[in-house]
Design goal:
SH3 type barrels; 3-stranded antiparallel sheet; 6-stranded antiparallel sheet; 9 strands; alpha+beta
Length: 100
C-alpha cells in the first residue's frame, strides 16, 4: 500500500482508503505543521474523505496515472474521465498497485 502520489505515469492502482491528514510524531498529533489536536481537525478529515468519494476516489475504484510531473498536479484517469489532483491530496489517497 502506498500514497497515490508515489505512482508513476502509466501505473494503475486500486484505492484502498483515504487518510485523514494526521501524522503522529512522538506522541503528538500533527496536522499540516500544527501541533496538538482538536476535534475540528478530525471533522475536516471526514469531510475531505467524503468529498474525494463524491469525486470518484472511493475504496475499490481503479485509477490510472496519466501524468505525474514535478510541480504540477497529478492527472488521473478515474471512472469515465480524467481528473487533476494536487500532490498534497494525492498523498492522502492510499492505493494498492495493480501488476501489469
Amino acid at each position: 500500500m502506498c500514497p497515490l502520489a508515489m505512482l508513476t505515469c502509466g501505473e494503475s492502482a486500486e484505492i484502498v482508503g483515504v487518510r485523514n491528514g494526521f501524522r503522529h510524531h512522538g506522541g503528538e498529533c500533527v496536522r499540516h505543521g500544527d501541533s496538538g489536536c482538536s476535534s475540528g481537525h478530525h471533522g475536516d478529515g471526514r469531510r475531505r474523505s467524503a468529498r474525494l468519494s463524491e469525486m470518484g476516489f472511493s475504496p475499490g475504484q481503479i485509477v490510472e496515472v496519466v501524468q505525474n510531473s514535478p510541480g504540477v498536479p497529478l492527472l488521473l484517469r478515474v471512472r469515465d474521465g480524467k481528473m487533476a489532483v494536487d500532490k498534497r491530496t494525492a498523498m492522502e489517497i492510499m492505493v494498492r498497485r495493480i501488476s501489469s
